[in-house]
Write a structure and sequence with these properties.
The complex is a heterodimer.
Chain A: H1 3-31, E1 37-39, H2 42-48, H3 51-60, E2 68-69, H4 72-92, H5 105-112, E3 113-114, H6 116-119, H7 121-140, H8 166-184, H9 190-195, H10 197-204, H11 210-232, H12 237-263, H13 284-291, H14 294-319, H15 322-325, H16 330-337, H17 350-379, H18 388-411, H19 413-416, H20 420-424, H21 427-438, E4 442-446, H22 456-459, H23 467-471, H24 487-491, E5 497-501
Helix pairs in contact in A: 1-7, 7-11, 8-18, 11-12, 11-16, 12-16, 13-14, 17-18, 17-21
Chain B: E1 6-10, H1 14-26, E2 31-36, H2 48-52, H3 67-71, E3 74-78, E4 81-85, E5 90-93, E6 98-100, E7 103-106, E8 110-112, E9 125-126, H4 131-140, E10 147-151, H5 155-166, E11 170-174, H6 187-199, E12 203-205, E13 210-215, E14 221-226, E15 231-233, E16 236-239, E17 243-245, E18 261-263, E19 274-276, E20 281-283, H7 298-313, E21 325-330, E22 333-339, E23 350-356, E24 363-369, E25 374-380, H8 386-394, H9 399-404, H10 406-409, H11 419-431, H12 442-447
Parallel strand pairs in B: 1-2, 1-7, 2-3, 7-19, 9-16, 10-11, 10-16, 11-12, 18-20
Antiparallel strand pairs in B: 4-5, 5-6, 8-17, 13-14, 14-15, 21-22, 22-25, 23-24, 24-25
Helix pairs in contact in B: 1-7
Classes of the chains: A mainly alpha, B alpha/beta.
Chain lengths: 524, 451
């Protein structure tokens, strides 16, 4: 064997090892929630419940004290029996004030847990998430090592993972299940959360919540798959820079800074999250937090408002919505890294474009109405609508915040592409899109008559834009949904597409003329 | 003028489909039928390779959704035309059906060249032009092919090599010329592509001609023999020495045929109400000094279709080609050309400027007339603006003016290396001209790729 062959075999071995480590880590991560036993005592209940509920909760859960439960299923099922017995009685008598609405399952399960995971969190973290990360790096780093820089889309439609094959279906189902448990049944994840407790203590001084666990996984997914992007797009500076940018913003702004703020006794705040994506920004408890946290809180409130009213229109005017969606945003960050293998699965039909416009703008309207009512209610000291805004918040949080953005938004990557949420649901994307469509210098320029209608641009557009439709008629692409990822330009074999900021004049050419025909001037 | 005449177009490639679409744009009444035996719907032939390599599915190569045709009242007929009766103005299909026309457009495209090599019809020997060719290639190379020989170093040849590499089939190129695509590309560009071909581990045999293709008893290819007597064992042979008009079914029908369907500059054949466009047509006189009688690229096919549609509805105009342009991709290296850059030129009449990046994958050539007005450019590994060069060539800018404004021609994505900067510097040095310096923005300097 010559040296390149040895090298190439070496790379394949490293990749195979990576795959094994990744799968071992996934297996550990999946099994960890089922480890250990649960034993509740009255001290835990005292520590974990609100003062107003404490006495009742101590009474309700009394039969469980000292009992050893061998699994989370038996513990939570017993908990539910006792708790529901209590609540159901008041509910049937319509004594709503007596009903305990708070969900104590997660904190109590976490307190009651006895497991090796809790005893050796660092070891378990290394064997699960650690192996996943190392395996992912081993698998991704040697990629395309021996190939010249270029487009690496070979075999995508022959892949069981990337073309809705069995692996894609399995991955999607796993993600959907994970999101459902995370959002609505986090008590089943207490082992995993305990596992990251020590890390959380270091960063914020507090034990972890399921959101810390989620934030950690999310950030690592962006980092590992971001490195994959560096390999895949070697030689394409635009792709590399924007990938580095989302990796940075996720790690620093979304993950580390908010935790450190908490350590410094400041409100938890992600400085790059913008209403209405950050839909609870104007909720009364948020406003109270900002107003009661001194100078820093006030700064956060003003900063958040400035982002909405100044940064979004200004930056979008100069650079298009890409400045946020594919360079800064966390949802975009995950889509552009972990979601990249699935970008080709977005629906390009005219019908889906119609659905998209109805849906995404409806969510925007809903978010605006909800927020307006919330603010009005806040300033009228809740005399206007009372607790109705709370109902609205829980509906929005459930339907949009959790089900749409999380379960569908990420769980559906392997089925409908990596930008389902951004395209059909994100109210901020809708707002940015309106600015981009009507008042911006950004466009994708079509290079004269060079298009050969091959379809690579449309196929790899994650937002489902039929880029070719415009390119083949020599028309600039000016679309509200375009997040400016630049992949259409990258995959074009004829150098037809260029993302540009330029004068507004001539940006939208509805009746383009294709260059190269001197016999007649015609509109495509 | 509105009309309800029936225009029948044989062939649903870019020429025929463009013609059909523009007919409908120009006239609401005209009855339009497009016939194709190859595929039910229009697809982009240039994308066939991507289907093979798993970049796309066949449906992705169809530029219009299936409802488009009915909505625009363009009738599609999925059948092969067997014969045409020009006296009764009728088409006869393989199935025995027939169809009448008022105006007939022949846009049947091409077929791969076969020059009568012994063994050229063996199993495992094929060209790549049609959907059927792709299906055959997928079938043939599914298993049992370890080595392939590609005869002819052109654009389809290099696509075929890239496709075969995806299936881990090694490839030997037999190229008659002294360099890859040397009949079109100047020496340096040809060498640049040659190096890149070898970087992809393909074997490139220059100045080598095919003598015969050898088969086994079952009629399957087992080797090729070159004119120098070398025998290369292989299980697949790609014939990519160009294409020629697909007009066999029209021979002897009364239609004047040379290599293709003979047409004048209005796309008219020798028979009234019969026209021909695209790469099956052969102009009796070359449309322009720098044009061939048969035009075989995507863009010319499209432009033919646009003009013929106009001519069938409005006052006919002759075909006047604009400034020549073309593009291709050689594995990972993109190529664009504007204006005239012949493979070789007379040093007394043409001034030459060539810049190549030290990495050997990016290059820029500018040819000028002796008065230094621009003749054309070749661009490799770089993207440049069609509009810029269309104007520069049309308005006969001097080379100096072109180079002075070169940053405006740049079409590379943001943050890519500013090659135009060093091209300007080299031009200034080579021609002793005062060329304006490029000032890069601070963000480009900070984050952008370096030359």
């Amino acid at each position: 064997m010559d040296s390149t062959a040895i090298r190439s075999t070496g790379m394949k071995i490293i990749q195979a090892v990576g795959l094994v480590l990744f799968l071992a880590g996934m297996l550990a991560f999946t099994l960890i929630p089922f480890v250990g036993s649960y034993e509740l005592d009255s001290e835990m209940v005292t520590a974990q419940t609100k003062e107003s509920h404490r006495e009742k909760m101590l009474e309700i859960l009394e039969p469980m004290y000292g009992k050893n439960y061998s699994s989370n299923f038996s513990f939570l099922s017993d908990f539910n029996t006792h708790f529901d017995d209590y609540n159901d009685e008041f509910k049937s008598n319509q004594k709503w004030d007596e009903v305990i609405w708070d969900d104590y399952r997660f904190p109590l399960a976490k307190a009651a847990l006895n497991s090796p995971v809790k005893d050796s969190p660092w070891l378990c973290l290394s064997l699960s998430i650690g192996l996943i990360v190392i395996g992912g790096l081993f698998y991704n780093l040697p990629k395309h090592q021996d190939e010249p820089a270029g487009i690496k889309h070979n075999g995508i439609y022959h892949s069981a993972m990337k073309n809705r094959g069995w692996l894609g279906i399995l991955t999607g189902s796993y993600l959907i299940l994970f999101y459902i448990i995370l959002y609505w049944f986090p008590a089943y994840l207490v082992n995993l959360v305990s596992m990251v407790d020590p890390l959380s203590e270091i960063l914020s001084g507090n034990p972890a919540s399921q959101w810390f666990l989620y934030g950690l996984i999310y950030t690592l997914a962006i980092l590992v798959m971001g490195i994959r992007m560096f390999r895949k797009y070697r030689g394409n500076k635009y792709q590399q820079l924007r990938t580095a940018s989302v990796m940075f913003f996720q790690t620093a702004f979304a993950f580390l800074i908010p935790e450190i703020l908490v350590l410094l006794n400041q409100p938890y705040y992600d400085f790059k999250n913008i209403w209405p994506l950050d839909y609870d920004f104007f909720y009364d408890y948020q406003i109270s937090t900002f107003l009661s946290s001194g100078g820093m809180g006030l700064f956060m409130l003003i900063w958040g408002i400035l982002l909405i009213i100044i940064a979004v229109p200004t930056f979008t005017y100069f650079y298009g919505k890409r400045w946020y969606c594919s360079w800064v945003c966390g949802c975009g960050g995950l889509a552009e890294t972990a979601g990249d293998p699935y970008r080709q699965l977005s629906d390009k039909s005219l019908k889906s474009w119609k659905i998209e416009r109805y849906l995404v703008h409806s969510v925007l309207v809903l978010a605006v109405v909800m927020t307006a009512l919330t603010i009005a209610n806040y300033f009228s000291s809740f005399s206007l609508l009372g607790n109705i805004t709370n109902q609205l918040h829980s509906f929005y949080g459930f339907a949009i915040g959790s089900a749409f953005a999380g379960v569908v938004g990420t769980g559906f990557y392997p089925f409908m592409g990596n930008r389902v949420w951004c395209r059909f649901g994100c109210p901020l994307a809708a707002y940015l899109g309106i600015v981009q469509r009507f008042k911006s210098r950004f466009r994708i320029t079509t290079n004269g008559g060079q298009c050969i209608s091959c379809g690579n641009c449309s196929t790899y557009c994650e937002m489902g834009i039929d880029v070719r439709w415009y390119a083949q008629r020599g028309q600039n692409i000016v679309r509200a949904s375009c997040v400016g990822c630049g992949v259409c330009s990258a995959v074009c074999p004829r150098g037809v597409l260029k993302l540009e900021n330029g004068p507004e004049e001539g940006r939208i050419n509805d009746l383009p003329i294709i260059i190269g025909n001197d016999s007649i001037k015609l509109n495509a | 003028m509105s009309t309800s005449k029936h225009v029948v177009i044989i062939g649903n490639g870019i020429s025929g489909i463009t013609c059909a679409r523009h007919l409908r744009k120009l006239d609401d009444q005209v009855q339009i039928t497009v016939i194709s035996g190859e595929s039910e719907y229009f697809f982009s032939r240039t994308a066939l390779m991507y289907i093979y390599m798993g970049h796309m599915k066949f449906e992705h190569t169809q530029p219009y959704e299936n409802w488009f045709w009915e909505k625009n009242r363009i009738e599609l007929k999925h059948a092969w035309v067997k014969t045409v009766n020009f006296t009764s103005k009728s088409l006869h299909f393989g199935s025995g059906e027939q169809m009448n026309y008022d105006e007939l457009v022949i846009a049947t495209g091409s077929k791969p060249n076969k020059f009568g090599w012994p063994g050229q019809d063996l199993k495992g020997v094929q060209g790549l032009y049609s959907k059927q060719d792709l299906e055959l290639m997928e079938e043939t190379t599914k298993s049992g092919v370890e080595h392939a020989v590609i005869v002819g170093g052109g654009l389809i040849g290099i696509e075929m090599a890239e496709m075969l590499a995806y299936r881990k089939i090694s490839v030997t190129f037999l190229v008659r010329e002294t360099g890859f695509w040397r009949n079109i590309l100047p020496k340096e560009e040809s060498e640049l592509v040659g190096r890149h071909i070898r970087e992809h581990h393909f074997e490139l045999k220059l100045e080598t001609e095919l003598d015969e293709i050898i088969g086994d008893k079952s009629g399957k290819v087992i080797a090729v023999k070159t004119k120098s007597g070398e025998e290369i064992p292989c299980q697949f042979v790609g014939l990519t020495a160009g294409v020629s008009p697909n007009v066999d079914f029209l021979k002897g029908s009364g239609l004047e045929i040379g290599r293709g369907v003979k047409i004048d500059s209005f796309f008219r054949t020798n028979i009234d109400h019969v026209y021909s466009i695209g790469d099956c047509a052969e102009f009796k006189e070359a449309p322009a000094e720098d044009r061939k009688n048969i035009e075989q690229v995507w863009y010319t096919g499209r432009i033919h279709g646009e003009i013929l549609a106009h001519n069938l509805i409005k006052k006919p105009v002759p075909y006047r080609p604009g400034v020549w342009f073309n593009s291709a991709k050689f594995l990972d290296i993109e190529y664009q050309t504007y204006g005239q850059v012949p493979a070789d030129w007379d040093r007394d009449q043409v001034k030459n400027f060539y810049w190549e990046h030290s990495g050997g994958k990016v290059a820029f050539r500018l040819l000028m007339h002796s008065d230094e007005s621009i003749l054309g450019v070749n661009v490799f590994g770089l993207r440049m603006r069609h509009e810029f060069f269309d104007r520069a060539i049309r308005e006969k800018w001097s080379g100096e003016e072109v180079i002075n404004k070169l940053e405006k021609a740049n079409f590379d994505p943001e943050f890519f290396a500013p090659y135009y900067k060093v091209i300007k510097e080299k031009f200034a040095a080579d021609f002793d001209k005062n060329i304006s310096k490029v000032k890069l923005s601070w963000i480009q300097q900070l984050l952008g790729a370096r030359v």
